[in-house]
Design brief:
The complex is a heterodimer of chains A (110) and B (114). Chain A is an all-beta fold and 110 residues long. Chain A is built from no helices and eleven strands. In chain A, the strands form two sheets. In chain A, strands 2, 4, 5, 9, 10 and 11 form a six-stranded mixed sheet that branches. Chain B has 114 residues and is mainly β. Chain B is 0% helix and 55% strand. Chain B is built from no helices and eleven strands. Classes of the chains: A mainly beta (110), B mainly beta (114). The A-B interface holds A 31-32, 38, 42-46, 49, 51, 86, 88, 92, 95-100, 102-103 and B 31, 40-45, 48, 55-56, 90, 94, 96-103, 105-108.
Chain lengths: 110, 114
């Protein structure tokens, strides 16, 4: 089974800064990568996903893939206190089956 | 309207009991999932059904038995509950089983086994 690793954090950034979250994956053949956000006591929600063919930008969120080093990053620009949450990285194993990392706690301080 | 709903939201029970968690989605999706999230926030898939057919069956004790009476419902029955079963159980659904389809999660059921 594929493995996905994330630094548990917490990662603390000041309001307005860029938050950079990373995730490494074990299977070099992985093609699809997902970022979910989970607020404390709530359910995960999809922020964005990217395929192995390129990076993706959506508003303040940018997902980048480094295939050579087998890691995927999520950049959050102009971080806001409301971005404080746990960010879960997931990699597709087959079909729509996802393997999740343990998540990184992000704290944005005002 | 809640897209993916689960009942109950909280479940506190004794070791050895049998309990069920229910999940319903009103999104018209074909595929549903059960995940377990432990105390370290590690989210792991347990089962997935597509149009009432089991398509993912991870290495889960056979005390856990999913049942899908129709494609809008996926229930989870747990026999002989153990302390280690304490976790948050999330139901999710997606349009189908094709790669990249967004999975929408329910609010979770917090199970505590005493």
């Amino acid at each position: 089974q594929k493995e996905v690793e994330q630094n548990s954090g917490p990662l603390s950034v000041p309001e307005g800064a860029i938050a950079s979250l990373n995730c490494t994956y074990s299977d070099r053949g992985s093609q699809s990568f997902f970022w979910y956000r989970q607020y404390s006591g709530k359910s995960p929600e999809l922020i964005m996903f990217i395929y192995s063919n390129g990076d993706k930008e959506d508003g303040r969120f940018t997902a980048q893939l480094n295939k050579a080093s087998q890691y995927v990053s999520l950049l959050i620009g102009d971080s806001q206190p409301s971005d404080s949450a746990t960010y879960l990285c997931a990699v597709k194993e087959y079909g729509n089956k996802l393997v999740f990392g343990a998540g990184t706690i992000l704290r944005v301080k005002s | 309207d809640t897209a993916v709903s689960q009942t109950p939201k909280y479940l506190v029970t004794q070791m050895g009991n049998d309990k069920s968690i229910k999940c319903e989605q009103n999104l018209g999706h074909d595929t549903m999932y059960w995940y377990k999230q432990d105390s370290k926030k590690f989210l792991k898939i347990m089962f997935s059904y597509n149009n009432k057919e089991l398509i993912i069956n991870e290495t889960v004790p056979n005390r856990f038995s999913p049942k899908s009476p129709d494609k809008a419902h996926l229930n989870l029955h747990i026999n002989s509950l153990e302390l280690g079963d304490s976790a948050v159980y999330f139901c999710a659904s997606s349009q189908d089983y094709v790669e990249g389809k967004t999975q929408y999660f329910g609010p979770g059921t917090r199970l505590l086994v005493l």
